[in-house]
Design a protein that fits this description.
Blueprint: E1 5-13, E2 16-24, E3 31-35, E4 38-43, E5 51-57, E6 60-68, E7 74-80, E8 83-84, H1 85-95, E9 96-103, E10 106-113, E11 119-121, E12 124-126
């Protein structure tokens, strides 16, 4: 783990639960955004220590905001689709239903999007037919 790792977040989306890591070198301005252990953004030298880093996780628009706090410290906030992460997660609980189970020895995650009736299984959207009777 890097000494410059300053923040980690867990983002629940229909296609899975994603881990976001942010590294910020406060002496060099280095910024690295990593999603699920893959570098999405890497900026090795920046003069401005505050600002924003925008990126996507699937179809979700994400933004890490870097602001100055007291002294030489910084605060980091993640927004997803325009909402602070906590509010986004609260909304996800309202608009999705998620089940996890073990099938044939494999951890399986199934998500129903209540507004679109899309069904996801382990990150893959399934072709489904809605029948009302």
């Amino acid at each position: 783990m890097s000494a410059d790792l300053v923040a980690m977040w867990t983002v629940p989306l229909s296609d899975g639960v994603h881990e976001v890591q942010f590294e910020h070198g406060t002496t060099t301005g280095k910024r690295i955004v990593r999603v699920d252990n893959e570098d999405i953004i890497r900026k090795d030298w920046m003069f401005n220590l505050v600002g924003e880093e925008n990126f996507m996780i699937g179809a979700a628009k994400c933004c890490i905001s870097i602001t100055s706090a007291s002294g030489f410290t910084h605060e980091y906030m993640l927004t997803v689709n325009g909402r602070e992460l906590k509010k986004f997660c609260e909304n996800q609980l309202k608009v999705t239903k998620c089940w996890t189970t073990v099938l044939d020895g494999i951890d399986t995650r199934v998500v129903l999007e209540k507004d679109t009736l899309d069904v996801w299984c382990n990150g893959q959207r399934l072709d489904t037919t809605v029948k009302y009777s």
